[in-house]
Amino acid sequence: MSPASPRRRLPLPSWLPASRWLADYQRRDLSADGLAAVIVTLMLIPQSLAYALLAGVPAQMGLYASILPLVAYALFGSSRTLAVGPVAVISLMTAAAAGQVAGGDSATFLLATTVLALLSGLMLVGMGLLRLGWVANLLSHSVIGGFISASGLLIAASQLKHLLGIPLHGDTLWALGASLLAQTGRIQWTTVILGLLTLAFLFWARSGLKSLLARTRLSASAADLVSKAAPVLAVILTTLAVEGLDLRRAGVATVGAIPGGLPALSLPAFDAELWRALLLPALLISLIGFVESVSVAQTLAAKRRQRIDSNAELTGLGMANLASAVSGGFPVTGGFSRSVVNFDAGARSPLAGILTAVGIALTALFFTPWFQALPKATLAATIIVAVLSLVDLGALARTWRYSRADGLAMAVTMAGVLLMGVEVGVIAGVLSSLLLFLWRTGQPHVAELGQVPGTEHFRNVQRHQVQVSPSVLSLRVDESLYFANARHLEDQIYDCVMQRPQIRHVVLLCSAVNQIDASALDSLESLNQRLGDAGVTLHLSEVKGPVMDRLRRSPFPKHLHGRIFLTHFDALRALDPASLAPPP
Amino acid sequence: MSPASPRRRLPLPSWLPASRWLADYQRRDLSADGLAAVIVTLMLIPQSLAYALLAGVPAQMGLYASILPLVAYALFGSSRTLAVGPVAVISLMTAAAAGQVAGGDSATFLLATTVLALLSGLMLVGMGLLRLGWVANLLSHSVIGGFISASGLLIAASQLKHLLGIPLHGDTLWALGASLLAQTGRIQWTTVILGLLTLAFLFWARSGLKSLLARTRLSASAADLVSKAAPVLAVILTTLAVEGLDLRRAGVATVGAIPGGLPALSLPAFDAELWRALLLPALLISLIGFVESVSVAQTLAAKRRQRIDSNAELTGLGMANLASAVSGGFPVTGGFSRSVVNFDAGARSPLAGILTAVGIALTALFFTPWFQALPKATLAATIIVAVLSLVDLGALARTWRYSRADGLAMAVTMAGVLLMGVEVGVIAGVLSSLLLFLWRTGQPHVAELGQVPGTEHFRNVQRHQVQVSPSVLSLRVDESLYFANARHLEDQIYDCVMQRPQIRHVVLLCSAVNQIDASALDSLESLNQRLGDAGVTLHLSEVKGPVMDRLRRSPFPKHLHGRIFLTHFDALRALDPASLAPPP
């Protein structure tokens, strides 16, 4: 049998991204995809239950969110190895948003989580079709980084309730802390011991188990995969402990009965007010889910010299969320750790995702009774270990050292998330990074220039030994001219001239000006007028081609009292030749 | 008596801006200031009554807003000739904001207008103290221009009710139009005739009267001043007509009894909910009032080679609004037409403003009975003529021709103001100009470069006849690298390399890169990694000094697989010397 025989087995339309990888699918890929699917399924079962717990929904919804969404992404996504499903940060955002609109009503809460998946799916597909992927750029890396770290801390704090066996309420660090302090007397110590043991085991598995396995005959990557399966072992051991030691009687809370079977397909009920209230959270969930997922997909694609089309990614993730919504799930996206495991386990194509979905479907059909005695504390410990690896507080110091503005945006995001909740945090972060960007470019570096003697070069008078004309002021602006700096520059230059009554000409060197928008054009017009009224002539030099093309479409070159020189040296030669030093 | 005798007559503290102009006040300035004050007072009386009408408050509040605020600005402002008081656009914004919170209750409406002045005053003073004047830069010229034009149209439409003698309701063009169509049968024709005659006279005065006066022995500037006093003449003539022809019986609405006397000093009652609801409108009123006022002040200052300190202007306008709030007025700012008249009439110092305040105070004390028979139609005509001169629809076409993005922002602002009200309009405008800026700089111009044969210069391969290396890709990015374009550039460069398997090196020419923020640094790191994984080495060349200083504070230069070259020619000489053309 030729290796090409499985080609074009399925009559898929060519516009479907999946047709591309199915067209050259090889039989030998199947075993690789199958193995990866088994490993990811084992990893995904406890994760899907845990993230359902984090999102505040019944455990089976975690399984449902790990079946159809994986199939939808395999058909519509552009990454070959991204593993889609419930992830920690998105589950936290889902819980916060649904909690806000539900007001304590659990039916509304469940409906809200499904509506969030639906709205988020519609938004992502819409952005994909309109090629609006660039909107995600509003989230700067500092904001994303701060958001992920702070969310990790907040998630860990929120899971303390399962480790301590007491109900904690609140969406912020303060609220959770206050809730904890009020109930210290009610801590359930059997649960605490079980939870701490699980935590210790999971942390040890991350480092100790790996080096232990490395000493065996296992390859390094296999050792890595086995150590990543530690949560499965923890699930089995603690479930057996609960059954064997009858810990439920000692007060240990377990997952309890999970209805078996596959999800029924249906659309969430329409409720205009509820949908409207969830629009903004759904947008934030979409953007953050997309940014996180696409960066994982790109990192993995680069390792095999493949490429990710970010608009196709939007559609793929959107379809995954729509699939989640119609099958009773909640918002999903591409997860970092699962995707890395999928890649490392050798997944060759999105078929691995489809096979994983089959694995979870089988679990939902046949194995749910096995999780009845699974302690919630185990799942909480799994979550805590997973999210604490996302927390990178050192990034704050590193970013601050590199750029005060970015560090500040990160700090604002983190403080917002921890003290005022995920939504306020991300919005405060976006606004502060925008304002800081405008503030920074709003006060651009303006250098006064002089001639480097004997050359045609002009340099900053404060940094170099240069020749300066008494009547011609040479200024270089190191920034595009646009609305955020137009007025400031106009004033700065005007004030600078007013302080030196002997100045007759101002020449603006525009070599670093990549754009001049309409506001800056108005400011140049007004500067030209104000300087003219004060008896000073404004000139430009070294205007870039595209900028000059645009200026020619305006009346400014006609209004300009001075000239536009090709080079700054030309300007000085025309305006004050006596000031120029002769060549040595 | 020496001309220096009036120096330092008042023991003012030196931190008060007024101490500066009082210190060198000359006796001969007094007569100039006095004359200007008389002319501005005559102009301000009908304007203050008209803008009170526009703001929806009793006529005397217009007078009150023209007394203490002028004194406060004279003491704290930095412009020598700016005439502060009620202005059209701010009065419209006041009416819209107060109308929204009052819900038809006139006591709440009046309280809201005073609270708006108070909040706006506090915000302006606060921004002045914190030196936050740059926040006003968020309002691009396109947004301001579109806002002023659209507000002018909306104000003119809103005044139709006084010209037609029917009550019109609504804050948008649609609402006003619908209200008008529903009441066409109730139009008060005597009022219409009176209003149209006044309108015709005022329009004629703007052009015809001026040229008529120019033929007399009056100087051009005096003719200009007299023609600007036409509203006063209109007020006198129509008041006499109402009295003489008993037009009130024919249904012509008049200003009615205005309580005489000076305003009592008091603070508006505190109402947390009301204040909170007015925070955003007060911020918008502050910013728009400030931007409009400061540009007038700067234009006038330039004509006498004086300077405006924008932070002092914030404080000055803030104190004027606080003064308005404690004396029963509504929000004020520097007005364009009055300031020009003040300047042209020869005002030398802010004393002209104080004398104008005395003039208005005398009016409030003794002359209010004279306005009892003044028809509202006359005031409406005054407003319409004044605001239609602000409408510049051609600006939309001009801006669009220069820059699609700016034109679009202006169109969004205008449509927002006309169809959804002033607040929505200005917010939509600001957001759209921000998003368009991010979108534009988010997809920067990236040129592939080749060597101009025989030189050390590198130019765009699409525009010039150049020499290209088969293994080294030379790219120049014409934009600072920051969060809005970082990810896009990373993908663009990576995809570009993936399409050409023969490429071994990528050199990024950074001569137009004024900044690299933390997001862009992350993207460079990731690009370096992704290219490295694909067997391609990333290099930089011609990095600017300040950008390089900052990069050195990060681990990026260490992580970079390639090198950072001083010049692009150096890079090619090191990486692929064979590709370089020899000098001719």
From TrEMBL, chains A, B:
Protein's UniProt keywords contain Magnesium: no
Membrane topology type: Multi-pass membrane protein
UniProt-listed InterPro entries: SLC26A/SulP_dom, SLC26A/SulP_fam, STAS_dom, STAS_dom_sf
Pfam family, one: STAS
GO cellular component: membrane
Transmembrane feature ranges: 35-53, 59-76, 83-103, 109-130, 142-160, 187-205, 225-242, 274-297, 351-371, 377-396, 408-439
GO biological process: transmembrane transport
Residue ranges constituting the STAS domain according to the UniProt record: 462-575
Superkingdom, natural source: Bacteria
Subcellular location: Membrane
Key words, A-Z: Membrane, Transmembrane, Transmembrane helix
SUPFAM superfamilies cross-referenced by the UniProt entry: SpoIIaa-like
Main location per the UniProt record: membrane
PANTHER family xrefs: SULFATE TRANSPORTER
NCBIfam families: sulP
Name used for this protein in its record: Sulfate permease
Organism: Alloalcanivorax xenomutans
